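ok so I'm stuck.
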Amino acid sequence: MYKIIRKEVLAPTMKLIEVEAPEIAAKVLPGNFIIFRIDEKGERVPLTVADFDRNKGTITLIFQEVGYTTKHLGRLEVGDALLDLVGPLGEHLPVEGYKKVICVGGGSGTALLYPKAKAFHEAGAEVLTITGARTQELLILIDELKAASNELFIATDDGSFGHHGFVTDILQELLEKHKDVDEVVAIGPVPMMKACAELTKKYNVHCVVSLNSIMVDGTGMCGGCRVIVGGETKFTCVDGPAFDGHQVDFDDLMRRLVYYREHEARVQEHHECCGGKGGDCKCH
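replied:
not stuck anymore, here's the structure
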């Protein structure tokens, strides 16, 4: 069992938990993820490790409540525990040897971006970070990103805070101003990552994206998380989750991400109606 020792509400539907997991904390690197299961009947869900403390033996997970399992996770409190926690999984993101990096996060992707920006900063790179959300109340980790960046830029779709527009607007301005950028790391909604990849390609700047394809076992055996990169099939769980954004088939990824949406909606309705126990209820 993996005990929750801290919980924070970062924004509507966005929560943070710190979990005791000393064996994972001892080995995890920026870019790695874990797969958790709340109880013996729960599904297995991947989450990127947002932060870790090797001395305390804890890892920090940030998640958005979008489906049954993440909503269930959001109802857990300090003192509760997760049944299973597997990791660290995936390939970590190399951060050594870079002089100037632009990190771009959108929505809940900012939680995944933070450990990368922090690692680049600690490795001595100049880090220019852009974060964005639909509105000000959905912005997260602003103080943490400031501490991990030389400069922080903020965008909101509705103009309630920072730049009124998209993160790609700021990215283009920075690429115009800074001709010596070594790499751009973009993490967020698939359309945002696709736009960042297309923009950086015009400026001949390498772009890394972190893909969120549907995942089951996390070991490359089921093939559920397959993506097309450079015309070849890759598995996000063992080959990624970070990939060259210029090589990713984003259209194929977007089609795969909505494949089970109808089923997920039915499951959510069933649990909201009768707790998933069956019986005579409106969702049957």
